[in-house]
Amino acid sequence: MFFEGTTFLVKGDCHLWVIISNPVSCQEKVVLVNFTSFKDNARFKDNARAHDAYNDPSCIILPGEHDFIVKPTCVNYGGALIASVDHLMVRYNRGDIKIGKPVALPLLTKIREGAMVSEHILPIACDILLEQDLV
To answer: Does the chain have fewer CB atoms within 10 Å around its N or its C terminus?
Structure first.
């Protein structure tokens, strides 16, 4: 049920979450990130966006890259979480998680590459991706 590229919505949250590590190879350390609207407007000057944890330009997803995306979206690397498959299953069985359409491999690769350049992601998340040879 929970594989690399699995997406889900959490009850009470409008952001789509995606598993970017491989839960099959490590069930105790599953890396999760979510998508949020990208605000590319005049209040950002030069490289200021790179330092905005909620508007990280490390990975911009456009409509057409996933069915859930209807406007320019970024990955919220600053909100990345590490969870276990057991924890996700408990939340799923409780009805807190609704599984969505998985991301395609090209988008998953793009998200993983963005994780490696984002200044906001937890270092342990990058370590997990490196340990699993995913980047």
So the answer is: N
| Residue 48, pLDDT above cutoff 90 | no
Smallest Cα–Cα separation from 17: which of 87, 84, 90, 103? 103
How far from each other are the two terminal CA atoms of the chain, in whole angstroms?
A: 23
Quote the pTM value: 0.88
Crossing angle between the packed helical segments 123-131 and 105-117, to the nearest 10 degrees: 130
Which residues make beta-bridge pairs with 30?
Answer: 83
Q: In whole angstroms, what separates CA 108 from the centre of its chain?
A: 9
Q: Is 14 exposed, middle or buried (0-12, 13-18, 19+ CB in 10 A)?
A: exposed
Chain segment 62-115, per-residue pLDDT in tens? 999 999 999 989 999 999 999 999 999 999 999 999 999 999 999 999 999 999
